[in-house]
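Final report, Chapter 2: Outcomes

The project's central promise was a pipeline that accepts a single protein chain and returns its three-dimensional structure in a standardized token representation, suitable for archiving and comparison. That pipeline is now operational. To close this chapter, we reproduce one record exactly as it appears in the project archive, with the input sequence first and the structure output second.
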Amino acid sequence: IAHNQQFAIEMQDVSSMIGRFFLTDISFKVPRGTVCGLVGKNSAGKTVLLRTLVNQMKKKKGTISIAGWDVHEQFEQMKSEIGVVWSELHVPVRMTARKLNKLYRSVYDGWDEDYFYSFLREFNVPLDDKIKTLSKGTLMKLNIALAMSNHPRVLILDEPTNHLDALAKEALREAIEEYKGTVILVCHEPEFYDGLNARIINA
């Protein structure tokens, strides 16, 4: 596929399905450095779209590229270019934030330990408490820190404000504003988009 380097994400004529949720002939492009908000009803399949975008669900047809890479053909080579936050953090429950830092540092060449610890301090995330003891809000903060500390070119956030208090939401908004890459954001709180200069796509 020939990719236009102006765009961080290109989805062309993509169809995908899981259960009763389906996408049909979806096409859109997201310019580099853009914050893009996906909005729509809860049943609109926004999470299906995101999971298809990052190769967690196989598309039936069409082409997808992220940062110039073909997602289907080259995912292993390009996965470090993407940071993803789902509604739940899937890591071993006996791990701690400090141990996760050590793990991620060994996996990602671009892992920024200083950024990670700074983020956790700002969000008041404990370093040595086991995952299984953390509240849902604290887990979401840790989830976001893990996604952003590799400085990926593309950041995908699926309902990142869930379980966050007002101060944490504002800190997250500031982190997104300072982020230099491209953001795809699904959020059920329309006011969170305020100030982000987001491009809105109705899904």
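Archive annotation: The beta strands are 7-18, 21-31, 35-39, 61-66, 69-70, 82-85, 154-158, 182-186, 199-202.
This record, like all others produced under the grant, will remain available to the consortium after the project formally closes.
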